[in-house]
Design brief:
single chain, mainly alpha, Lipoprotein
Length: 69
């Protein structure tokens, strides 16, 4: 979560810095898009890994309960 805020702040800082130079606006927008995409991908991967881990734990508990009976 800290990285999300860090990347957001970085994006904001790059946007403010690029406002003074209109020739680099498109390059900065592309760069910011890449940062946002990579951050979103990393967050999605992290959430999916956590969900897979939780599913494995729940399945393990369910198997233990079924075998105990």
């Amino acid at each position: 979560m800290k990285n999300l805020f860090a990347f957001g702040f970085l994006a904001l800082a790059l946007t403010v810095a690029s406002c003074n130079n209109t020739t680099q606006t498109e390059e900065t927008a592309d760069s910011l898009t890449n940062v946002i995409d990579s951050t979103a991908t990393a967050l999605t991967d992290s959430i999916n890994a956590t969900a897979d881990s939780a599913t494995a734990v729940v399945d393990s508990i369910a198997d233990s309960v079924a075998n105990a009976q």
